[in-house]
Automatic annotation (TrEMBL):
Name this protein carries in UniProt: SYPL2 protein
Gene Ontology cellular-component terms listed: synaptic vesicle membrane
Domain MARVEL stretches: 1-134
Family annotation (PANTHER family): SYNAPTOPHYSIN (PTHR10306), SYNAPTOPHYSIN-LIKE PROTEIN 2 (PTHR10306:SF8)
Family label: Belongs to the synaptophysin/synaptobrevin family.
Claim: Phosphoprotein is one of the keywords in the record: no
Organism: Corythaeola cristata
Length: 134
């Protein structure tokens, strides 16, 4: 939810005045999907572990239970791939929205002929990149 993040921009008309601008975009859906799937995967893994360890004889006797477990695991693997791709796309969109050149281009005061605008810092995205790779 980048639209909730304000940033200060100097107002060139007044020497000490600043204007508050907000970033544009809401890329929370892919991240929420990724985290929700991770939580459900963890809960299913814990339930399967209890089933394997505590009710091993039931798992061995019932022929439908292993097949059901296999089908659920395949579904989780597919959705994990989809969630990782969605989070990767969401991260790419966040990077594009927070790129200093994009922010400077969106500022009206930086559009003048004699105006030189540059970013104070570049956002660090290393940990976000690692979250997609894992």
């Amino acid at each position: 939810r980048l639209y909730q993040i304000p940033f200060e921009m100097p107002d060139c008309e007044g020497e000490s005045e600043t204007r508050t601008l907000h970033l544009v975009g809401d890329f929370s859906a892919p991240a929420e999907f990724f985290v929700t799937l991770g939580v459900f995967s963890f809960l299913y893994a814990m339930a399967a572990l209890v089933l394997y360890l505590r009710f091993h004889s039931l798992y061995g006797e019932n022929k439908k239970l292993p097949f059901t477990d296999f089908c659920i695991t395949v579904c989780f693997a597919f959705f994990w791939l989809v969630a990782a791709a969605a989070w990767g796309k969401g991260l790419t969109d966040v990077k594009a929205a927070t790129r200093p050149s994009s922010l400077i281009a969106a500022m009206g005061v930086c559009q003048g002929q004699d105006v030189v605008c540059n970013a104070g810092t570049t956002p660090a995205m290393g940990l976000a990149n690692i979250s997609v790779v894992r």
